[in-house]
Design goal:
single chain, alpha/beta, seven-stranded mixed beta sheet, six-stranded mixed beta sheet, 6 helices, 15 strands, globular
Amino acid sequence: MTEVISEVTMSLKIISDMGDFGSNAYVVSDDESAVLIDAPCDPSRLLEALEGKKLEAILLTHGHIDHMYAAGELKKTTGCDVYISQEDAGMLESPELSLANYFSEPFERCSGAKLVHDGDKLTFCGMEFMVISTPGHTKGSVCYVCKSENAIFSGDTLFAGSIGRNFSGETYKKIIPSIERLYGLGVNYNVYPGHGEKTDLRTELAYNPFLGELSERIKPDWSQK
């Protein structure tokens, strides 16, 4: 895949189409430091995208290899902290649980990650990131909400026109309640997913074919947002 870097705001940068899985990573920064949401692959490419800023933290949306690939090496080389949910933490030390073996991908363990829980509020670069537990794609999938950037970093929970899947075949009944939690925030946030193009909550409720039942049941008042 061809890597593409695009600037969204002065604070937010998208690194898209990374590696074999076309994963996205996001850099949120101030003048001196940065936080990385997901670390799909090629640590050197991610470091280059930081443009010399200090990497304070990596926030992992879940523990699959196409999102944590570079976390271990970046932790070693930069001294940054890595954050992940308790339910997915074991994936960072297991090529089996992370699906690295399944996809025949190289694997580097990432030890000593810090655990996040639903409702946690993390502050980096003068910005707050709220943790929303969104199980479905994995048991420990989370989204990170950054109000100052009007952004939800959704990992593999919600995509433009689709939703995350898993290998159990029970994704729909688990993930729709998780996605509904995002609408419960009451703001038409921009959605920055783990794969594909950015979107927003209003667009997905109106047009995402997997949210049909949800769109009939909830009616957010977007005019107030």
